[in-house]
Amino acid sequence: MLTVCETAALLRTFDNVLILTHVRPDGDTVGCAAALCAGLRALGKTAYLLPNPELTKNSEPYFLPYAAPEGFIPGAVVSTDVATTALLPENARCWIGAIDLAIDHHPSFEHFGKANIIRPEAAACGELIYDILAALGPITAEIALPLYVAVSTDTGCFAYANTTPRTHQVAAALMDTGIDYRTVNKVFFRTKSRKRMQLEGSMLSTCEFHDHDRVAVLSVPRSLMERFQATESDAEDLSALGGQIEGVDCAITMRELRPDVWKMSVRTGHRVNATKVCALLGGGGHAAAAGCTVEAPWAEAKARILAAVAQVAPDYQD
């Protein structure tokens, strides 16, 4: 396992770098990749991000300026905020086994790179990227803006329980570069499309409660997305909704990706370890935020995830 200094030294030896992000890319993976790309370019390196087909409207402005042109042949491949190769998009799977450096912060990280660095105590992978880039040179505003996106989105604008004093220190340092953090906060945390509001309303109206109302299950079938003609941008971070319900300390969001293929996003408080829940179904993540995929009809998929919660949660009753 590499240290920050060793990682910086390794990156100095790379050129023609291709940076990979994960499926259903969030602000953390996009912001980390874009900031790393900007930092490498500041060193005179050629660096690009592998295009991600599931990019959302909010993340596009930070990703597209660094997208690799067709036919780019990398000399080194780096992944950011990817815990397992199973989370790589289809167009990145050809690089499995050939990833030169993997940078991550998930406790379930699978050490799939030829070299690896992980900081599981970090609220966001952006905190680790910040330290690596600071070891390479000055943190410019061009680097700081996507890094602020990374750190702020993975902490719910610094409201999630994973936020630490170090998170705020990194955010303050990024803000000191003069970036327009106000626009980031407005776009990602204080603006919702009309379709998004309709999705949330429907999810809440059909929400199920279990375990003395401490566990909430919210569903997003494909039919719901089709009814409102909602896009991936409208559905971004829907998993945060259930945890806002009073009394709920384990929120499960079931998102249908394909017929009878459900992405489970689990958000929990201290009573339930989300990683342990999702690990029982082949997934992983953090103690308070994890995910897995279940292939089954809705009722069976719901029964499986609730059984996993019951196995992990103390005094679960239903």
Low-confidence stretches: none
Q: Mean of residue pLDDT?
A: 97
- Counting helices, strands and paired strands, the structural category is alpha/beta
Query: How are helices and strands ordered from N to C?
Result: HEHEHEEEHHHHHEEHEEHEEH
Strand ordering within the main sheet: 6-7-8-9-11-10
Largest sheet: 6 strands, mixed
Radius of gyration, taken over Cα atoms and rounded to an integer in Å: 19 Å
Helicity, as a percent range: 25-40%
Shape: globular
Distance between the termini: 43 Å
Strand content: 15-25%
Helix count from the secondary structure assignment: 11
Total beta-strand segments: 11
SSE arrangement:
Elements: H1 4-13, E1 17-20, H2 27-42, E2 47-49, H3 60-63, E3 76-80, E4 101-104, E5 115-118, H4 125-136, H5 141-154, H6 165-175, H7 181-189, H8 194-205, E6 208-210, E7 215-220, H9 222-228, E8 250-258, E9 261-268, H10 274-279, E10 284-285, E11 289-295, H11 298-312
Parallel strand pairs: 1-2, 1-3, 3-4, 4-5, 7-8
Antiparallel strand pairs: 6-7, 8-9, 9-11, 10-11
Helix pairs in contact: 1-4, 2-4, 2-5, 4-5, 5-6, 5-7
Explain what this protein looks like in three dimensions:
With 318 residues, the chain is of the alpha/beta class. The model has no long low-confidence stretch (mean pLDDT 97). Helices cover 36% and strands 17% of the residues. The radius of gyration is 19 Å and the shape is globular. It starts with a helix and ends in a 6-residue tail after the last helix.
Short structural description:
This protein is of the alpha/beta class and 318 residues long. It contains 11 helices and 11 strands. α4 (125-136) runs antiparallel to α5 (141-154).
